[in-house]
Amino acid sequence: MIKITIVITLLLMSTNIFSQTPKKSESVSINGKTIFYEIYGEGEPLFLLHGYTQSSKSWKPYVKDYEKEYEVYLIDLTGHGKSEPFRQDLSIRSVAEDLNSLIQYLQLEQIKAIGFSFGGDVLYQLALINSSVIESMITIGAVGTWTINDFPEYLKVFNFENRNNFPWLKTSHDGDEHIKAMMDQFKNYTIKVSDEELQSIKPEVLIMIGDDDEGMDLAEVARVKKNLPKSDLWVLPNVAHGAHEGETKDEFILKSKVFLTKK
Asked: 11 near 54, Cβ under 8 Å?
């Protein structure tokens, strides 16, 4: 997470909708919740996971870059997009459990994955829940540990009363019920991965952060890098939270493909 002003710019950049038609889209009941997903392309399964208050639409501009080599899955994570609103307090672990159940529903033995921010935190939890399901993963602006308690100023600005200041919300979600539930639950965004848990994570991980991402504590990044058994760290200079977007997108696509094809 980063300063709200930077978040606005990045999310507006990432919500341009491209015209790809999915080969499949479906809403399914997962752990008593409705979860929506779309599939594009052919090849090994690649999951693209969005940030908090975003939806799978944020990854639409990237589908064309991956669909010739991968079967691309765009997921509306629990509480977001066309998935049903939050009915319980936000739990990153619970969101990861829903994702794991969706993977089982899809009968996929193993996936590759890229997760931005919230999506990256979900991937760390998924790797702990199901140790063999992720072959390799890229996390952007996320190291699996983050708490809103360190950034109380975010709650003063990023709330339902100010929703009109964040125009991607209306285009990404099905109405005010969704938006209110997400923004009300932001106060519960807390997740921690211990050294021992990091050491148990099996997939190879590319940790990608911008050096101007004010939500990422560099000491915490170093702790995660030190304890992950198989990891690379890519720090982009003069880049904020959405390190895969804007001027760095082409470089991100190139390096992500190289990383995901590593054996």
From this structure: yes
Distance, CA of 90 to CA of 170 (rounded, Å): 20
Instruction: Tell me the pLDDT tens digit for each residue of 203-233.
Output: 999 999 999 998 999 999 999 999 999 999 9
Six-digit token pair at 113? 């994955």
Mean pLDDT of the 170-176 span: 91
Q: Tokens 């590593």 appear where?
A: 262
Decide if 86 contacts 94 (C-beta within 8 A). no
Rounded (to 5) percent helix, strand, coil in the chain: 45, 20, 35
Q: Where are the alpha helices (DSSP H) in the chain?
A: 4-14, 63-66, 92-105, 118-129, 152-157, 168-172, 176-185, 195-200, 218-227, 249-260
Coil, helix or strand for 209?
strand
Q: How far, in Å, are 201, 213, 229 from residue 195 at the CA level?
A: 10, 23, 11
**pLDDT tens-place string over residues 5-57:** 344 444 444 444 444 799 999 999 999 999 999 999 999 999 999 999 999 99
Place of tokens 């050491």: 199
Residue with tokens 């199901």: 130
